Protein: Alcohol dehydrogenase catalytic domain-containing protein
Amino acid sequence: MRATLMYGPGDVRIEDVPDARIELPTDALVRVTASCICGSDLHPYHSMDPAHGPARMGHEFIGVVEDVGSDVATLRRGDLVVAPFAISDNSCGFCVEGLHTSCTHEQAGFWDGVPDQGGQSEAVRVPLADGTLVKLPVAEDSALIPSLLTLSDVFGTGHHAAKCGGVTRGSTVTVIGDGAVGLMAVLSAKRLGAERIVLMGRHRDRTDLGRRFGATDVVAERGEEGIERVRELTGGHGSGIVLEAVGHMPAYEQAVGVVRPGGVISRVGVPQYSRARVGFTSLFGPNVRLAGGPAPTRAYVEELMPDILDGTIEPGLVFDAVTGIDGIPGGYRDMDERRSIKVLVRP
Ligand SMILES: [Zn+2]
Structure:
């Protein structure tokens, strides 16, 4: 079968690899019908150490169950399923709490921890299939597939940002970052009832989509100028809830700059730093809380799916390009050079 491998920075190749197959009784074999490239895939695309490669890529996909192991109870051949970006048993203490990314099962974890598997391929062996996969009540060629695919990661991640930030009816929210996750954070804040949503981003096509998803204001300026602008828009003291959807240090600094005393910074952009200001002049003095982390998207599927199925929201609008498997290396380039927001892959 064909799959995507990353060899090092900027070096993504499509290669023939051994067919995925059932290895454990709790596995399912899924033929991928839709997958995509993630903004977080661009982090290794910039900085991967080739000594750790090649790495199989992709952690968001929808597909058809082709085979199941003998212990799989809830899925059968022919089911259309969506795979969250974390593997979990959906039954341990943390899963029951809704924190599937901290699942204690020995096979639980992120897709990059599963050797020789990845969603940007023709098929995937899915561990802990009963816990990880969620059946979709549509056909594989449904027009809702792009939106349902966002349940794997970006929509669930935007929702997690909003939830960890405590967004509720009437909230004032600032979203930092106009990538797919930032736009999903806007949509999620709107869905949870936020009244004022300031989107910080400087790519017009993206911030226009952000307005469509519910942003009430767009701030294109960055740094001190951007911070001043957000403070002006939010009554002078800043925003009570800040959703940081980038992961680089300037975005964190921006968040510290625009958050209101007593407010919360909720981070879902994978941090590309391990040291940041948390002292008196940044978080401690103004009583600011820092929240967020990898989204347990499995926990949110049942809550978010109905609004997609009935057409209330269309998160799939973040996909502005579609390619086959051979177009994946070009898709990485297009996303890296900001020509595409997010690339949908139809293997
Ligand atoms: Zn668990």
In short: Residues 88-89, 91-92, 94-95, 103-105, 108 surround zinc ion (CB under 6 Å). The radius of gyration is 20 Å. The mean pLDDT is 97. Residues 297-309 form the longest helix (13 residues).
